[in-house]
């Protein structure tokens, strides 16, 4: 190769490299939190060409424009359909700050605060599937279900059999499952064939099928877990519809089993839960099922819980779940108990938690002793020292169980349960649904479950943590740098 050509190529590559770095500094930080922007900039600066390619594939936290427009349409529909049915009337039992948080959620997520609900908690994996199966067997009109992971296996076979029986009775069964998450588990194709064979109407959520004209950032996922029967009974929480081992040989080899929490609802909030399903159905099919969205809002039972659903995700302008979680943590006066399998907070949540601990609020955090996702697990561990120094009590749920439940309690009055982890992925990239509940009995029931976690966990001390191997500390810190990308 002539020297002049070699020099020209070298200069060209230098100019291209410099141009990439300059443009990255200009465009990457736009509308991103500093931690996320810094993670992307580090990636691009260390490996410019690969970094740019990865950024182009995964850098946008927004859904395609057409889907965002659909979200605005469905938000307006929900707002109009639920106007005037805010049945939760303020009373002396409400904390002073509660009404303002309900208004925050209403303005961000379009869901009203509804009173007159009853709720039962199920923390045993097989029991919750049995309860959902029993509910489907009572269906007379429709069954709506959406799961991040949906798979027929030996554990979930009774549930699929109940869906089959419902179709045979003339019940309309509509099914949504996340494309990429379900695709990654064994039995994906067999599950789709099973749904087709029984006569269910099913669709993939957020499909990544570029040759069919359906594409968005591949790791923007619908992480919700929802079941609605006739608008009378609803389930939501953290549990996917799959075997406790997620039917993976690596999990079976390690003996891993997931522990989750599902909530069975009756009352006006079931209609709101159904509206979330209808919004996701509309997003995937262009079919707006307005008739199925008109349910009774009559109160039931004696608990009279005040409940408010908070949908969140890249289809919304703000990070609805993060705003609610931070507001609740700042509002707490006495005690906070957090449970999350993936605790990778952004700066705002980390400050909220440590500030609450430093002002004298008793805070406990339940996480798993081991992890199923290495990078996320190590990123989570990088926060332990700061939490422990602030006075947060960290409980490690004993291996080989993966504590996958997602919930927390604020003082003695308010709780949040749902599909959302306390991590940046759930705040920005995943479609989630959380439920804020005001009711002392519900909080007490959740506290009983938390007490069960405590008995199965060991407390992590600052002294123990500071003595961990140097290689572990280095890996934790490196993983933390990538947390904004996870």
Could you characterize what this model shows?
This protein has 486 residues and is an alpha/beta fold. The chain contains 19 helices and 17 strands. The chain has helices at 3-27, 34-46, 48-58, 65-81, 98-109, 125-136, 157-168, 179-183, 188-198, 249-254, 269-285, 320-331, 347-358, 374-381, 384-390, 424-428, 440-455, 462-466, 470-481; strands at residues 114-122, 142-147, 172-178, 201-205, 225-229, 233-237, 257-259, 262-266, 305-312, 335-339, 362-368, 393-397, 401-403, 407-410, 414-418, 432-438, 457-460. α14 packs across α19 (470-481). The longest helix is centred in the N-terminal third of the chain and has 25 residues, at 3-27. The chain is globular and about 85 Å long. The chain starts with a helix and ends in a 5-residue tail after the last helix. The mean pLDDT is 89.
């Amino acid at each position: 190769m002539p020297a002049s050509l070699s020099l020209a190529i070298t200069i060209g590559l230098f100019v291209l490299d410099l141009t990439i770095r300059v443009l990255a500094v200009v465009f990457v930080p736009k509308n991103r939190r500093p931690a996320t922007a810094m993670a992307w900039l580090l990636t691009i600066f260390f490996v410019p060409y690969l970094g740019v390619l990865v950024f182009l594939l995964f850098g946008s936290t927004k859904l395609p424009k057409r889907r965002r427009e659909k979200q605005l349409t469905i938000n307006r529909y929900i707002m109009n359909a639920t106007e005037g049915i805010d049945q939760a009337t303020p009373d002396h039992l409400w904390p002073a700050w509660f009404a303002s948080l309900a208004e925050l959620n209403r303005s961000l997520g379009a869901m009203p605060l509804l009173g007159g609900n009853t709720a039962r908690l199920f923390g045993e994996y097989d029991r919750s599937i049995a309860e959902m199966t029993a509910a489907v067997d009572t269906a007379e009109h429709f069954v709506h279900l959406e799961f991040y992971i949906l798979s027929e296996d030996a554990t979930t076979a009774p549930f699929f059999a109940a869906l089959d029986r419902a179709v045979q009775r003339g019940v309309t069964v509509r099914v949504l499952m996340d494309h990429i998450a379900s695709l990654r588990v064994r039995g994906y194709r067999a599950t789709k064939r099973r749904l087709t064979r029984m006569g269910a109407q099913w669709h993939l959520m957020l499909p990544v099928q570029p040759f069919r004209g359906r594409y968005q950032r591949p790791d923007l996922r619908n992480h919700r877990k929802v079941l609605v029967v006739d608008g009378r009974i609803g389930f939501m929480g953290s549990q996917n519809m799959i075997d406790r081992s997620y039917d993976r040989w690596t999990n079976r080899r390690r003996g891993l089993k997931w522990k989750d929490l599902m909530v069975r609802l009756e009352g006006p909030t079931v209609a709101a839960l159904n509206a979330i399903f209808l919004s996701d159905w509309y997003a995937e099919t262009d079919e707006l099922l307005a008739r199925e969205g008109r349910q009774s809002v009559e109160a039931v039972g004696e608990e009279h819980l005040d409940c408010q659903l908070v949908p969140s995700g890249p289809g919304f302008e703000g990070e609805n779940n993060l705003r609610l979680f931070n507001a609740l943590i700042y509002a707490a006066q006495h005690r906070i108990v957090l449970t999350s399998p993936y605790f990778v907070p952004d700066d705002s949540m980390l400050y909220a938690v440590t500030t609450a601990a430093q002002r004298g609020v008793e805070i406990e955090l339940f996480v798993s002793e081991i992890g199923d996702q290495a990078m996320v697990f190590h990123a989570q561990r990088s926060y332990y020292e700061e939490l422990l120094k602030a006075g947060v009590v960290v409980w490690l749920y004993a291996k080989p169980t993966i504590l996958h439940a997602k919930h927390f309690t604020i003082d003695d009055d308010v709780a949040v349960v749902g599909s959302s982890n306390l991590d940046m992925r759930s705040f920005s990239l995943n479609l989630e649904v959380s439920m804020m509940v005001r009711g002392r009995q519900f909080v007490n029931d959740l506290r009983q479950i938390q007490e069960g976690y405590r008995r199965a966990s060991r407390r992590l001390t600052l002294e123990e943590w500071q003595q961990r191997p140097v290689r572990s500390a280095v890996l934790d810190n490196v993983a933390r740098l990538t947390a904004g990308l996870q």
